[in-house]
Amino acid sequence: MRIIPLANIPAQTLKVILGGQDCAISVYWRQTRLYLDLAVGDTAVWRGAICQNGANVLQGRSRFFRGSLHFFDTQGQRPPHFEHLNERFFLVYVDADEPLPEGLRF
């Protein structure tokens, strides 16, 4: 498991190595929801994924990405909000070989 540090701003893109994969992650706020785009190398893996608490952001498996991405609310069960990223809401990468974390508290 790895926490991916995010700023508490409404739109951001970062490059990070996850499970040996060269990833670009874009997180952005639209109206009342947080969304995520993921690319591995030059391949767009997922675009416009709705970010929910605890659920796999990618909502399914991909042959282009190994593992899963999850937002966790450390103070309840709310969907993530950009104003509290890396304070209350954390983006977590879980490798395909790891169990999903339960009851995270940072």
General description of the model:
This protein has 106 residues and is mostly beta strands. It has one domain. Helices cover 0% and strands 46% of the residues. It is built from no helices and seven strands. It has strands at 2-4, 11-18, 21-30, 33-40, 43-50, 68-73, 89-94. It has a four-stranded antiparallel β-sheet with strand order 2-3-4-5, with no helix packed on it. A three-stranded antiparallel β-sheet has the order 1-7-6, with no helix packed on it. Strand 2 and strand 3 (21-30) form a beta hairpin. The mean pLDDT is 92.
Characteristics:
three-stranded antiparallel β-sheet; 7 strands
Encode the helix/strand succession as letters. Answer: EEEEEEE
Helical segment count: 0
Number of domains: 1
Q: How many runs of DSSP E, i.e. beta strands?
A: 7
Shape: globular
Helix content: under 10%
Structural class: mainly beta
Mean pLDDT over the full residue set: 92
Radius of gyration over alpha carbons?
13 Å
Strand content: over 45%
Low-pLDDT stretches are none
Quote the distance from N terminus to C terminus: 13 Å
Strand order of the largest sheet: 2-3-4-5
* Main sheet record: 4 strands, antiparallel
Précis, in short:
By secondary structure, the protein is an all-beta fold.
